[in-house]
């Protein structure tokens, strides 16, 4: 059985005061779900310490939005996975489409970041997904396979068992457009099938164990339908994770 997981990605939002206010409102709404689902929030780096303290012993976990592909050294502006592990992060997003598209992170760079996160003993959440142009030119499957293959080539498929895959169609992120249940189901099945096809004999059931979650304008109004799909093991939530009522209702949909 794959345990559902809900991850909030705060992106570059928040302040000391706003984070405190959000957590005061959201934690009571999440607490009741913490036994049946894994829950995590990913604030911007400077607030990790604050949010870690606010999470306290609630069982809700801390995550980060990215990590360097380097271990340490002269890489100004980078944050290593080990530092994030030391801060208490249990998850790190890798290859979010905003990183790929706005900051030029290539499949290879994403794979290096993935390796660093794994090496620090933290679970990477690998974001994959197609742009609208990819979808309209029937390249969805190919693009996602290339994104997955780069990571498989870097760390090997067996090592990915500890990670999570987040399917996030780029055209649905922060746009208010959600993929239809049919579109989501199809891609989730394709991802699982691709993993199964690439699994070495000895680790056949990795495709059944690996959690594949969905992200892209999930809100309380569509969460129940999306999370009822057989191959959807949870959600990566951007905008709606900044609203206590919304995030609480979305957690209740899992
Ligand atoms: C995201 O940032 O990963 C995301 C899915 O954003 P939103 O929910 O706002 O579309």
From TrEMBL:
<protein>
    <recommendedName>
        <fullName>Triosephosphate isomerase</fullName>
        <ecNumber>5.3.1.1</ecNumber>
    </recommendedName>
</protein>
<comment type="pathway">
    <text>Carbohydrate metabolism; erythritol degradation.</text>
</comment>
<comment type="pathway">
    <text>Carbohydrate biosynthesis; gluconeogenesis.</text>
</comment>
<comment type="similarity">
    <text>Belongs to the triosephosphate isomerase family.</text>
</comment>
<feature type="binding site">
    <location>
        <position position="217"/>
    </location>
    <ligand>
        <name>substrate</name>
    </ligand>
</feature>
<keyword id="KW-0312">Gluconeogenesis</keyword>
<keyword id="KW-0324">Glycolysis</keyword>
<dbReference type="InterPro" id="IPR013785">
    <property type="entry name" value="Aldolase_TIM"/>
</dbReference>
<keyword id="KW-0413">Isomerase</keyword>
<comment type="function">
    <text>Involved in the gluconeogenesis. Catalyzes stereospecifically the conversion of dihydroxyacetone phosphate (DHAP) to D-glyceraldehyde-3-phosphate (G3P).</text>
</comment>
<comment type="subunit">
    <text>Homodimer.</text>
</comment>
<dbReference type="InterPro" id="IPR022896">
    <property type="entry name" value="TrioseP_Isoase_bac/euk"/>
</dbReference>
<dbReference type="GO" id="GO:0004807">
    <property type="term" value="F:triose-phosphate isomerase activity"/>
</dbReference>
<feature type="active site" description="Electrophile">
    <location>
        <position position="96"/>
    </location>
</feature>
<feature type="binding site">
    <location>
        <begin position="238"/>
        <end position="239"/>
    </location>
    <ligand>
        <name>substrate</name>
    </ligand>
</feature>
<dbReference type="Pfam" id="PF00121">
    <property type="entry name" value="TIM"/>
</dbReference>
<dbReference type="InterPro" id="IPR000652">
    <property type="entry name" value="Triosephosphate_isomerase"/>
</dbReference>
<keyword id="KW-0963">Cytoplasm</keyword>
<feature type="binding site">
    <location>
        <begin position="9"/>
        <end position="11"/>
    </location>
    <ligand>
        <name>substrate</name>
    </ligand>
</feature>
<dbReference type="InterPro" id="IPR035990">
    <property type="entry name" value="TIM_sf"/>
</dbReference>
<feature type="active site" description="Proton acceptor">
    <location>
        <position position="168"/>
    </location>
</feature>
<dbReference type="InterPro" id="IPR020861">
    <property type="entry name" value="Triosephosphate_isomerase_AS"/>
</dbReference>
<feature type="binding site">
    <location>
        <position position="174"/>
    </location>
    <ligand>
        <name>substrate</name>
    </ligand>
</feature>
């Amino acid at each position: 059985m794959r345990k559902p997981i809900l991850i909030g990605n705060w992106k570059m939002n928040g302040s000391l005061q706003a984070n405190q206010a959000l957590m005061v409102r959201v934690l009571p709404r999440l607490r009741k779900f913490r036994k049946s689902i894994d829950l995590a929030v990913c604030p911007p780096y400077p607030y990790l310490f604050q949010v870690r303290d606010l999470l306290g012993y609630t069982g809700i976990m801390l995550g980060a939005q990215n990590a360097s592909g380097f271990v340490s050294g002269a890489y100004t502006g980078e944050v290593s996975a080990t530092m994030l592990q030391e801060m208490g992060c249990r998850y790190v997003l890798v290859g979010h489409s905003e990183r790929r598209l706005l900051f030029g992170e290539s499949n290879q760079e994403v794979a290096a970041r993935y390796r660093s996160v794994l090496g620090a003993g933290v679970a990477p959440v690998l974001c994959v997904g197609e742009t609208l142009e990819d979808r309209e030119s029937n390249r969805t499957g190919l693009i996602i396979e290339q994104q997955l293959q780069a990571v498989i080539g870097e760390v090997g498929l067996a090592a990915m068992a500890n990670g999570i895959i987040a399917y996030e169609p780029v055209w649905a992120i922060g746009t208010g457009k959600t993929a239809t249940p049919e579109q989501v189901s199809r891609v989730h099945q394709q991802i699982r099938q691709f993993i199964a096809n690439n699994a070495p004999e000895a680790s056949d059931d990795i495709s059944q164990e690996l959690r594949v979650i969905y992200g892209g304008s999930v809100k309380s109004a569509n969460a129940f339908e999306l999370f009822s799909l057989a191959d959807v093991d949870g959600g990566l939530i951007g905008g709606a994770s900044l609203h206590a009522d919304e995030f609480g209702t979305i957690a209740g949909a899992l």
